[in-house]
Specification:
The complex is a heterodimer of chains A (248) and B (222). Chain A contains 9 helices and 7 strands; from the N terminus they run E-E-H-E-E-E-E-E-H-H-H-H-H-H-H-H. Chain A has 248 residues and is an alpha+beta fold. In chain B, helix 2 (8-38) packs across helix 8, helix 2 (8-38) crosses helix 9 and helix 4 runs antiparallel to helix 6 (106-134). Chain B has 222 residues and is mainly α. Classes of the chains: A alpha+beta (248), B mainly alpha (222). The interface between A and B is large, with 49 and 41 residues.
Amino acid sequence: MKLTLKIWRQKDASSKGKMVDYSINGIEGDMSFLEMLDVLNEELINKGEEPVEFDHDCREGICGTCSLQINGEPHGPDRLVTTCQLHMRKFNDGDTIVIEPFRATAFPVIKDLVVDRSAFDRIQQAGGFISVNTSGNTVDANAIPIEKHAADEAMDAATCIGCGACVAACKNASAMLFTSAKVSQFALLPQGRVEATERVQNMVRQMDLEGFGNCTNTGACEVECPKGISLENIARMNREYLSATVEG
Amino acid sequence: MSGLIKSSIARKVVMALSGLFLVLFLAQHFTINVTSVIAPETFNEWSHFMGYNILVQYILQPVLIAGIIVHFVMGIVLELQNSKARSIKYKKYSGSANASWMSRNMIVTGLVVLAFIGLHMYDFWVHEMAYKYIEANPEDPTRYYEETVIKFEPFWRTIIYIIAFVLLALHLWHGFASSFQSMGVNNKYTPAIKTFTKIFSIVIPAGFIFIALYHHFNPITH
């Protein structure tokens, strides 16, 4: 497979970036998208050029490290997969592929295709936890019976890997799907209810402080989420936030 | 409380509530307008009530104007914030791959509808204020039907009204159901809300278009 790649190159956070064209040959359909970039980088290194920087870690769709806006969509054209799970068979010989970093003011570019997603960490730190005694008197989590559907919904919310595709896909660069998944995974469980009021207020406040946009319910985040996180989580967070505000 | 006003979720709720209020107004406006086609005398009677009832004039009318202003101002504030949230735009952005045109262009359809409200206020409200308070004409409960039909005589005005109603349909198509999601309603009733949204956003604007065309093609001949 022969491809033309248009890739965003940016030396560092303070430099001005630009799109650079690359031609690449010998790409197999069974390769993952990141393996295709590995091939490109080997060629660049052999030519003495700077390789393209991109985030990756587990390469099996569970860590949330890989990103990339591929032909205008986060994680590319396939659904429910991360970039590392995207196969080159989704593309055709002779295709031009546009590869950009996830764009959001709250996700500044560090280099090339690598963005700083620590805004998500700060949202999580603002309330995405439960306070549990771990000094030796830890209560067994299974001591509290939980309804099956609540456990399932909490688990579904907890599958969010925090990759940032929701922000990248949203026309407003809103982080509502991520934040709502992290609020929901606790809000649905009795262990999480104890700090539910402060949690939602603190996490939403941090989300706003980071400079993410406002949700306009386009649903793009849900479509592009590699883990299929549902918009129901956003509605749940809205409810949680409103009732927390009323409770004061 | 200041935290609530600054919060993105609270702003969305304000947007949703003001939007739903305007939807209710739209349904009421449509109900009265339908009578201009099927029962002109009833249209005159109801219009006169709306024009001279103290409760409508001094409470409902200011609330309606406030509702429009809040919805518009909040829409602009949210749009500016959203634009700032992605300061460097994508070279290639496939918006249509994951979201409807209607949901991505609420600001466009909203501004067109707002411009239309300006024309509509000029056509009817300004005229009404001049009639009542500047010219200080006496009450005439029979004038409304004729005044309305005359407005639709010029082809250009009828066309502008039709275009605005099409844009209003597109705005409602996303906005109505979306307002429930903003208020935290996403449950077993959501499919029904979405279906009702589709019916409402087609039937009401199509009805307004029919009324405009009906009066354009059935002018009053003396």
